[in-house]
Write a sequence for this structure.
């Protein structure tokens, strides 16, 4: 999503904005330098794991399921050959693992001496089923692609780790948005697999209320579009534009959207520019499948199964997971070693997108790593 453009309304406002912009630029340049340093000896490596005879929970199957992944660093094994320094980082809906290679995330975490220093940790960033360079409907199967759901995505992640990368233990599982929801499922389905869990911008409950409705708006727009042709279109249906507009709307907070688009004409220009860029690469079936995949997500009944220390971080300006519902604070009490953290609204928060601004929640990650640190962990 495009970064918000602040529009000053006075000379004092322009001066303050100029000062803030210079400070932000300096921060970003420093973060970029750290990101480059992190890449230095531990450059990003990309690969594809082909999972044979992958069976989905609904009974569908693929003889070969491709899961693309990125790694930084190298695995460190103990005397028994078990990898002890692996960190699994999971992306959000319609995203991919490459979303984390950016100054505000990798530049704050992966550099020398930082919390997830790539010279000490083995960082694994997969593309989920239907996303990025992993197998997805737009590869050619279109609407004949298996109708995957979140449990399928977690199982593919597990098989990637065990079968392709030889990882049977994780120092940390963390994820943003959809990846945060996957993090809750990881804790329940494989409670002995990890030392710690950090779901960001997510709730440990069924997708319901406003969160379900905006997803349905996109799903219905695509499926009711005559040009969709039951998924067998040769040109992107016009409803893809509706999908892009809704994704743009829910990804930030009202203050930033107002600053970015303070007049009717500017609002139209901003959304037109965003949509035009997104539609060059996005696919209606891919988006439809990705949003529908949350249908099996319901971790609430099994939260007591989670054994690893868990720190769930949301932001106060998140439109998708609004704090006034109190769902996170209520349900995290069922997690034996769980805690809820709410990042307050500030000039640095970006609504739902705050999940990728590591400076906002890095102190909580540091505390979680310290709390869950095994004797032999890095």
């Amino acid at each position: 999503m495009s970064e918000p453009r602040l529009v000053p309304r006075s000379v004092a406002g322009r001066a303050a904005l100029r000062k803030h912009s210079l400070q932000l630029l300096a921060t970003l340049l420093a973060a970029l330098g750290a990101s480059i340093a992190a890449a230095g000896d531990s450059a990003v490596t990309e690969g594809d794991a082909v999972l044979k005879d992958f069976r989905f929970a609904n009974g569908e199957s693929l003889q070969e399921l491709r899961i693309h992944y990125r790694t930084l660093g190298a695995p460190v094994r103990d005397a028994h050959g078990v990898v002890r320094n692996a960190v699994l980082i999971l992306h959000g809906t319609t995203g991919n693992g490459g979303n984390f290679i950016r100054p505000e995330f990798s530049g704050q975490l992966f550099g020398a001496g930082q919390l997830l220093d790539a010279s000490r940790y083995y960082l694994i960033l997969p593309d989920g089923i239907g996303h990025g360079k992993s197998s997805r409907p737009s590869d050619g199967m279109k609407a004949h692609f298996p109708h995957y759901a979140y449990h399928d995505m977690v199982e593919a992640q597990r098989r990637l780790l065990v079968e392709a990368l030889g990882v049977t233990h994780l120092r940390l599982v963390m994820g943003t948005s959809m990846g945060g929801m996957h993090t809750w499922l990881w804790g329940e389905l494989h409670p002995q697999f990890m030392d710690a869990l950090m779901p960001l911008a997510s709730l440990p409950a069924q997708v319901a209320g406003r969160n379900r409705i905006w997803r349905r708006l996109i799903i219905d727009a695509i499926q009711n579009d005559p040009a969709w042709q039951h998924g067998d279109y040769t040109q992107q249906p016009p409803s893809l534009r509706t999908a892009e507009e809704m994704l743009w709307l829910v990804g930030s907070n009202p203050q930033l959207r107002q600053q970015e688009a303070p007049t009717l004409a500017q609002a139209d220009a901003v959304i037109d520019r965003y949509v035009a860029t997104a539609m060059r690469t996005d696919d209606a079936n891919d988006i439809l499948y990705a949003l529908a995949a949350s249908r099996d997500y319901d971790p609430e009944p099994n939260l007591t199964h989670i054994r690893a220390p868990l720190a769930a971080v949301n932001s106060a300006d998140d439109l998708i997971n609004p704090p006034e519902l109190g769902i996170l604070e209520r349900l995290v009490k069922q997690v034996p070693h769980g805690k809820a953290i709410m990042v307050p609204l500030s000039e640095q928060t970006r609504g739902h997108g705050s999940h990728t601004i590591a400076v906002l929640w890095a102190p909580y990650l540091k505390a979680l790593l310290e709390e869950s640190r095994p004797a032999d962990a890095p």
User: Anything to note?
Assistant: Residues 11-371 form a domain with the Rossmann fold fold (CATH 3.40.50.1820). Residues 208 and 215 are 10 Å apart (CA to CA). The beta strands are 45-55, 61-72, 86-90, 122-126, 172-176, 197-200, 310-315, 338-343.
